[in-house]
Inverse folding.
């Protein structure tokens, strides 16, 4: 089965109280890593149907981002057929970036709310993160691998965003500059319009994350060429409304949430974070 369907065992009158939730796990993990969140959702919101994606677990999560997105998209289409009234999509870490791309390539999606939990939405540029997967790489020279044909076969390479080599980023990266509409494509309008169908976009991150670098990437902020972090609302992706962030914000549909004191691997395992930060957006 491509997805685990967790069916509630409660009175059917509660089943329709909450929208179904679709969860996409992070890099090098799997569906089991998200079970605490699943359990908390069903404990506080009895009757919720939860789909906990079990594709691309472990090392397979390093496969090309587009390949993962197209596979997840097929799953989401089946879920939308079952729940035409809408679902909530939640992605953690790399899973949040991939889930966002799934929305953008699926113009008829049924997602009402999208929650991005500490995800590199504007890209990633940090040695600490690299050493978790590629022990010999450092941020300064990683572009020599990632901005090649071989490097673009990895998910990390697809969203590696070196602020000092933007020419190579735009030349070689086949994923992030396109879904962020930094580079035009035949799908640029669709990528934006699909985002604008959301009733709410919730972006969660924090300064003590320690893995997403800069942490502001979780809010679409990012480095400039001088290693200064430019917040989302001062970057072109927002100012030019490239994927609809400004429009969503203007309509009150964009939420940027900053939570201090949370390490990257705690976002989905810390009950207080799940209960106090995530669950209020599942109502």
């Amino acid at each position: 089965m491509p997805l685990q369907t967790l069916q509630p065992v409660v009175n059917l009158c509660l089943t329709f109280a909450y929208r179904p939730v679709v969860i996409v796990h992070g890099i090098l993990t799997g569906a089991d890593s998200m079970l605490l969140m699943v359990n908390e959702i069903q404990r506080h919101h009895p009757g919720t149907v939860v789909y906990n994606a079990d594709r691309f677990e472990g090392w397979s999560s390093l496969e090309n981002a587009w390949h993962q997105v197209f596979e997840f998209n097929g799953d989401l289409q089946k879920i939308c057929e079952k729940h035409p009234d809408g679902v909530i999509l939640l992605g953690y870490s790399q899973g949040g970036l991939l889930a966002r791309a799934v929305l953008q390539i699926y113009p008829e999606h049924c997602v009402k709310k999208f929650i991005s939990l500490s995800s590199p939405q504007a890209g990633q540029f940090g040695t600490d993160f690299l050493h978790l997967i590629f022990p010999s790489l450092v941020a300064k020279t990683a572009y020599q691998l990632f901005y090649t044909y071989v490097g673009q076969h990895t998910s990390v390479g697809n969203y590696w965003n070196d602020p000092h080599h933007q020419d190579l980023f735009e030349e070689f990266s086949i994923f992030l500059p396109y879904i962020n509409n930094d580079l035009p494509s035949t799908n640029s309008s669709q990528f934006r319009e699909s985002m604008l169908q959301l009733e709410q976009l919730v972006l969660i991150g924090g300064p003590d994350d320690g893995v997403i670098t800069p942490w502001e990437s979780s809010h679409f902020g990012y480095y400039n060429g001088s290693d200064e972090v430019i917040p989302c609302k001062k970057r072109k992706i927002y100012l030019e409304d490239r994927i609809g962030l400004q429009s969503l914000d203007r309509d009150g549909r964009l939420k940027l949430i900053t939570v201090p004191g949370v390490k990257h691997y705690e976002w989905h395992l810390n009950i207080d974070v799940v209960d106090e930060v995530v669950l209020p957006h599942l109502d």
